[in-house]
User: Fold 2-C-methyl-D-erythritol 4-phosphate cytidylyltransferase from Pelomonas aquatica.
Amino acid sequence: MNPVPRSPRCFALVPAAGIGERSGAGMPKQYVEIAGRPMLAHTLAALAAVPRLVQTLVVLSPADDRFESTVLAALPGYAGWVARVGGASRAESVLGGLAELRRRGAADEDWVLVHDAARCLLRPEWVDALLDACLPDAVGGLLAQPIADTLKAGDAAGRVTATIDRRDKWAAQTPQMFRLGLVERALRQMGAAATDEASAVEALGLAPRLVRASMANFKVTWPEDFALAAKLLAG
Ligand SMILES: Nc1ccn([C@@H]2O[C@H](COP(=O)(O)OP(=O)(O)OP(=O)(O)O)[C@@H](O)[C@H]2O)c(=O)n1
Ligand SMILES: C[C@](O)(CO)[C@H](O)COP(=O)(O)O
Assistant:
């Protein structure tokens, strides 16, 4: 077995305990087959191709009974860590995963790259760009994409209420990388209201770095997203 390098190390943490309600798939969307294997298998394969990540922990729901028979079956020889410590919200699942990383020897100063299972088009070179930009940084950061469309606010009736200045707006993606001690403290403080790690860190008065990636790093969310992801993965 290869010795695990000393701190600070870089871990990936993949929250995969959601139910995928908006996807309309009738099953947790991470298990929907896209281009020949479950979405989560694509995500884990991309992270496994980044040598600077010492290990990946995938966080499943305590009730999950599909991972081994579908995802592991599609990834022969996969040696990542698995923990059934998911919670009712994404933030709770991430906090469960951070506690599991600590149980397995990770320390406050280690970096954790949190990446949505549902962003299955991740490319190793984008993770490398994030690491290059954030490893020398005290705070950490996230992959993101500047908004290219004109931004509208709308009401419940589907009518425009305002046009929003888009010049400083970015769409947040994942991975989002922070030191374990910092992101754990931030998420504990913000609780389930945190829709991503960066917003919790921002609430502590810090300014995460924005690292441009690609629109292709989108999150499979709606029914039509599966076909788009399949086309891109097949290509
Ligand atoms: N309680 C939860 C909720 C979400 N997630 C994970 O967080 C990522 C981003 O969440 P999202 O795209 O919203 O997934 P779901 O919560 O599954 O989708 P929906 O909101 O449509 O139900 C996904 O990889 C999802 O599995 C999680 O681990 N635990
Ligand atoms: C973390 C995230 O993917 C960044 O864009 C996003 O906030 C997750 O939101 P969701 O509502 O849990 O899909």
About this structure: The chain has one domain: 10-234. The longest strand covers residues 170-179. The CA atoms of residues 118 and 220 lie 5 Å apart. The mean pLDDT is 96.
